[in-house]
């Protein structure tokens, strides 16, 4: 990537932007703990979550252009609208409005994160766009400033700007890094056919709670945070939890078979990722993850079983 003087800022000084393409890789997220509190008057649920970035990545390339355009390849091509509703376009426009530069870029997405899978692919793409366009336009915002703009686009965007493992509170948009001694965790990711709508899954957990058929809410993430510090996958496996899991399984009963199949294949633990329908399984090590993925793939309970590790960095230029 080379640099050039870009459009001027508020101070009339030209900005140093990139001349060549800017390529950004951004990870998917899973939630090691997803505690869902009551519905707030503003329509959001109060969350206590531990985000964890894993090594399934989307890649966004930004080039200079005369207008704002978006093309894509990979997961969801032909299904995902590339118009003003796309979080990539919305992120580019939000950054342009914030920094008062024209929203001009040719954007291309290589998507590997399954659509509507509970892996926050859309939020990941928004985080990647903020970083790519900030670099392309030379607007020079900090990660924290990009995360603040991202919070207006989606609850998971600030986390995906930062990556790693982090505690999320509020409706997930307030993130603070989890300071654990570095450990790598190995996962099997069971990708489902078709997605689940996040708002629908939240409505379903409210319905199950109103009917008195939902398990007790998980509450704080303290036990998960303590388990992370022990660096023992069996301990971490026992501490994983997701309040949305009963709702996702209620809407998609076949997920119970996926969870059973992963455990039968020898996973330490399995859970629905976020609002689903992706299920993730914790393995002892990388070889164990490969073995579980291969076995899961033969059962036919999921479209695809991938291996991944975490934590990984958030959006970054490659
Ligand atoms: P959430 O972040 O709500 O948990 P998810 O991980 O289940 O969502 P996403 O892949 O982020 O699922 O997509 C949710 C919806 O967001 C999609 O169905 C789509 O309509 C919309 N969307 C907008 N832009 C994008 C994008 N760039 N990638 C994926 N989805 C997008």
Automatic annotation (TrEMBL):
Pathway: Isoprenoid biosynthesis; isopentenyl diphosphate biosynthesis via DXP pathway; isopentenyl diphosphate from 1-deoxy-D-xylulose 5-phosphate: step 3/6. The active site is at residues 29, 156. Residues 224-300 form the GHMP kinase C-terminal domain. Its EC number is 2.7.1.148. InterPro entries: GHMP_kinase_C_dom (IPR013750), GHMP_kinase_C_sf (IPR036554), GHMP_kinase_N_dom (IPR006204), IspE (IPR004424), Ribosomal_Su5_D2-typ_SF (IPR020568), Ribsml_uS5_D2-typ_fold_subgr (IPR014721). GO terms for biological process: isopentenyl diphosphate biosynthetic process, methylerythritol 4-phosphate pathway; terpenoid biosynthetic process. ATP binds at residues 114-124. Keywords: ATP-binding, Isoprene biosynthesis, Kinase, Nucleotide-binding, Transferase. GO terms for molecular function: 4-(cytidine 5'-diphospho)-2-C-methyl-D-erythritol kinase activity; ATP binding. It catalyses: 4-CDP-2-C-methyl-D-erythritol + ATP = 4-CDP-2-C-methyl-D-erythritol 2-phosphate + ADP + H(+). Residues 1-21 are annotated as: Disordered. It is an enzyme of class 2 (transferase). Pfam families: GHMP_kinases_C, GHMP_kinases_N. Residues 1-11 have a biased composition (Gly residues). Residues 86-164 form the GHMP kinase N-terminal domain. Belongs to the GHMP kinase family. IspE subfamily. Catalyzes the phosphorylation of the position 2 hydroxy group of 4-diphosphocytidyl-2C-methyl-D-erythritol. This is 4-diphosphocytidyl-2-C-methyl-D-erythritol kinase. The lineage of its organism: Bacteria, Bacillati, Actinomycetota, Actinomycetes, Micromonosporales. The gene is ispE.
